[in-house]
Amino acid sequence: MSDVCTAMSLLIKSFSKYAGREGDPHTLSKAELKELLHNELGELLKDTANKGAVDLIFKDLDTNKDNSVDFNEFTALHVINTCYLLYRNKYLKSCTLK
């Protein structure tokens, strides 16, 4: 399997692991997103307990403003943009991508 296919498979698996714990199995609530960020991206984020950072990410990802984040919203370029915003606002820890 190619690196991109592996990455997409892992992204789908991670999303599915947290989606639906509070209802709809195809979306993330703000609490589910916070748990995903803490457990899956905690090594990159300085403070996943920071409510402001989670609110910023959730607001940015929830493009249709239905108070949930579906997989399309989660995987859209907003993920990259959000990571960049967090980095720029110093919410991300320093890291070297290999």
From TrEMBL:
Pfam families: S_100 (PF01023). SMART domains: S_100 (SM01394). InterPro entries: EF-hand-dom_pair, EF_Hand_1_Ca_BS, EF_hand_dom, S-100_dom, S100_Ca-bd_sub. Residues 49-84 form the EF-hand domain. Coiled coil: none annotated. Transmembrane segments: none annotated. Keywords: Calcium, Metal-binding. PROSITE patterns: EF_HAND_1, EF_HAND_2. Gene3D superfamilies: EF-hand. GO terms for cellular component: cytoplasm. SUPFAM superfamilies: EF-hand. One of its GO terms (molecular function) is calcium ion binding. PANTHER family: PROTEIN S100, S100 CALCIUM-BINDING PROTEIN. This is Ictacalcin-like. It comes from Takifugu rubripes (Japanese pufferfish).
